[in-house]
UniProtKB/TrEMBL annotation:
It comes from Trichechus manatus latirostris. This is Pantetheine hydrolase VNN2. The keyword Hydrolase applies. InterPro entries: Biotinidase-like_euk, Biotinidase/VNN, C-N_Hydrolase, C-N_Hydrolase_sf, Vanin_C. The gene is VNN2. The active site is at E95, K194, C226. GO terms for molecular function: pantetheine hydrolase activity.
Length: 535
């Protein structure tokens, strides 16, 4: 297990110090130091190009379903083995990685296995028949055990229910989008049923959001899936209530510019929540699915975005086991302190309305090559100070503010301040997706009068690149560039979520409102199928 890894590096440091000091002094020096500085682990995530089934109107046989899942597991096996050989202690694989996403309740059924509660203490690799026919769980458990590495995989769970229970589906099973984690012995240590489904008629919503954590010698872990990241439960509660060190996050994320591209939003969430986030996305270029990464609270460690090839990708990075006690841990931020204490810059007369997706923003143009601007919408005022290296004739930037229920579903309350490049020099194109820019900024400072403490700082550069080490958030809530002139900027944003103003915020806390949430979700889903956010 990883203990040997940590122990080895501890001994190496001891040996190093020991060579020039007496041992007792060395031990004393180590104790006096922040020991956590040595306390890291090697994390892996794998972006997987799923082998998809043929589109089927009727269910395939269990044998055919297993055949397809095994083809995908063959590919995951290579990634898991390689990660373990390189010393990884844990690897995350994507949502839907064994079979894709295009199913009805009936056509997904042959892919499902009954997954027991981890409390049963089960090593499927050793005790194969204990819970019936579970070939997928057995193989995954053996992969973890054989390679001595923690493995997270997303699979489908079926739970028999009593037909007299009015919520029990007509086939007699609840069907869940599920993450499982096996430890280095192959033991099932975690099972999480996804709560916030996104256009997934094949799966059921669990009665309550599940708060799933597990402990290892390299920190405490929490789990959720894809769309869950936009909501308070379980995501925020795992970080704040359970004090997890690292979140494992499988996803099938469809990129949406300018604010919700995978690498951009996920790296920002890790910074805003001050937690490690290990993201494994699916790879499917024609659906805009790419973008995985290993994100630390202070900065992205490694990320991958590839719209060119059809290949999967393994990422590895060393991560702090206990980021809260690491010297790099960022200070808490008061997101509105600066914006509330300054005298607002003169409000621009030429403010105009425009759309990002379906959300109506108020925009104002960055007309000069440098300046101080304010734009407001209802309770939210956004301030920007900036100096461009050079104002490009054909590139137009705006400062925008949005506060309100987002999109067509209108369930999530957003507060957003953003500076972005418009698609063309015509101001009616501001907010539309654009992927390239050439304008660099010598200085920018963005802030807003947020009413929420959940704000995620995003910086996205030309050709969909992050900007690690080149920006920071000051304690008073200003998002500023650092270490000199920026790269060419697509957008700089403060993405706020005001959860308590969400429609149905309290859903999931009682089963009645969970049911109404489900009903409303289904109604909204019918109209929301086209795009907006992600899988
Ligand atoms: C794990 O190792 C055992 C014995 O070494 C072998 O029989 C089995 O096929 C391996 N399983 C996997 C999934 O690699
Ligand atoms: C993990 O350890 C903490 C204390 O260190 C404990 O409170 C918590 O219950 C443990 N969690 C699990 C899932 O075992
Ligand atoms: C992918 O993204 C591009 C640009 O952002 C957009 O035009 C296109 O419609 C998206 N494709 C899908 C399938 O959503
Ligand atoms: C944040 O700063 C503002 C302005 O200084 C202050 O009024 C507010 O109380 C602060 N909020 C918190 C949570 O400290
Ligand atoms: C700013 O936004 C509000 C709310 O959407 C809108 O009523 C108002 O007209 C906008 N202001 C301008 C100048 O577009
Ligand atoms: C913006 O404001 C700062 C002080 O708040 C001032 O020093 C600077 O000159 C202003 N910049 C412009 C271009 O007006
Ligand atoms: C900007 O685009 C709008 C909508 O496409 C169009 O009606 C308008 O004429 C354009 N303005 C200019 C100056 O090209």
């Amino acid at each position: 297990m990883n203990v040997t890894y940590d122990f080895r590096s501890y001994q190496e440091v001891l040996a190093m110090i020991g060579s020039s000091f007496p041992t007792s002094a060395a031990v004393f020096a180590l104790l006096a130091l922040n020991v956590s500085a040595l306390d890291t682990f090697l994390a892996a995530v794998y972006e997987h190009a799923i082998i998809l089934p043929n589109k089927a109107e009727t269910p395939v046989s269990q044998e055919d379903a297993l055949l397809l899942m095994n083809k995908n597991i063959d590919i995951l096996e290579k990634a898991i083995t390689e990660a373990a050989e390189k010393g990884a202690q844990i690897i995350v694989t994507p949502e839907d990685a064994l079979y894709g996403w295009d199913f009805t309740r009936e056509t997904i059924f042959p892919y499902l296995e009954n997954i027991p509660d981890p409390q049963v203490n089960w090593i499927p690799c050793q005790d194969t028949h204990r819970f019936g026919h579970t070939p997928v769980q057995t193989r995954l458990s053996c992969l973890a055990k054989n390679n001595s590495v923690y493995v997270l995989v997303n699979i489908g769970d079926k739970k028999p229910c009593n037909s007299r229970d009015s919520t029990c589906p007509s086939n007699g099973y609840y069907q869940y989008n599920t993450n499982v984690v096996y430890d280095t012995e192959g033991k099932l240590v975690a099972r999480y049923h996804k709560y916030h489904l996104y256009s997934e008629p094949q799966f059921d919503v669990p009665k309550k959001p599940e708060l799933v954590t597990f402990n290892t010698s390299f920190g405490r872990f929490g789990i959720f899936t894809c769309f869950d990241i936009l909501f308070h439960d379980p995501a925020v509660t795992l970080v704040e209530g359970f004090q997890v060190d690292t979140i494992l996050f499988p996803t099938a994320w469809m990129n949406v510019l300018p604010l919700l591209t995978a690498i951009e939003f996920h790296s920002a969430w890790a910074m805003g929540m001050r937690v490690n986030l290990l993201v494994a996305n699916t790879h499917h270029v024609s659906l805009n699915m790419t973008g995985s990464g290993i994100y630390a609270p202070h900065s992205p460690k490694v990320y991958h975005y590839d719209m060119e090839t059809a290949s999967g990708k393994l990422l590895l990075s060393e991560v702090d086991s206990h980021p809260r006690v690491s010297p790099a841990y960022p200070a808490a931020i008061n997101w509105s302190a600066y914006a509330r204490t300054i005298k607002p810059f003169p409000i621009q007369k030429n403010t105009f309305g425009g759309f990002i997706s379906r959300d109506e923003f108020n925009f104002t143009e960055l007309y000069e090559s440098a300046g101080n601007l304010t734009v407001c919408q209802k309770e939210l005022c956004c301030h920007l100070s900036y100096r461009m290296l050079e104002k490009e004739e054909n590139e137009v930037y705006v400062l925008g503010a949005f506060t309100g229920l987002h999109g067509r579903r209108r369930l999530e309350y957003w507060q957003v301040c953003t500076m972005l490049k418009c698609k063309t020099a015509n101001l009616t194109t501001c907010g539309q997706p654009v992927e390239t820019a050439s304008t660099r900024f010598e200085m920018f400072s963005l802030s807003g009068t947020f009413e929420t403490k959940y704000v995620f700082p995003e910086v996205l550069l030309s050709k969909i690149h992050l900007s690690p080490g080149k920006f920071e958030v000051l304690k008073d809530g200003r998002l500023v560039n650092k270490n000199g002139t920026s790269g060419p900027i697509l957008t700089v944003s403060l993405f706020g979520r005001w959860y308590t103003k969400d429609l149905l915020y309290n859903s999931g806390r009682t089963s009645n409102s969970a049911r109404s949430y489900l009903l409303i979700s289904i109604l909204l889903m019918i109209t929301a199928l086209q795009n907006i956010v992600m899988a």
